[in-house]
Amino acid sequence: MDEKKNGISAKTYILIVIAIAAIGVLIMTLTNGKQLQGNACGVNYQSPFGQQQTAMWIDVDSLRAASLIANFEAEIPENPQPDLYPNTNFRAYTNVVIEEWFTNDAGEEGVRFSKAYTCDGSELYEPNVTFRSTNIVDVGDAEVTERGDGETISMASWSIGEYSYSILALNTPLEKDVLEKLIAEMK
Known about the structure:
Elements: E1 4-5, E2 8-9, H1 10-30, E3 35-37, E4 44-46, E5 57-60, H2 63-70, E6 87-93, E7 97-103, E8 109-117, E9 133-139, E10 142-148, E11 152-160, E12 163-168, E13 174-175, H3 176-185
């Protein structure tokens, strides 16, 4: 059974197919069945056949659970307005964002703390509100963009390394000194 096809014997043809299959199995074994796609920041784990995990927001019971979903740790300060907003909420966006925010019994939001793996220091939230005052200040090692009314701060954003941070207090803005203390506590 040494039949020739286009100048290649059947045995040689079978050996070539087996070698290609072996290389494919070796690649799948070395990459643990996953293929990295995208740039260094936007890496999506994807199987060789194109399936990938859908990223989504997931509400959870604790900061630890949110950290497991986001695949990184976060240190969030204590609630700065516990009398106004006693309820604590957590959520994470798969492999990207951790959020902790505080609400009152009516579900109105007080303060929201967010940390995201952005690689490039881009802001987590684009303000769709016009603020009377926008200032860039140094708080510790971070260059922070503070937005507010000139006396209180409603939104602060900054980045350190590959992570971006945000504090939103749109309904009840914070005093500058209170906000900057919270910024120093976030990691």
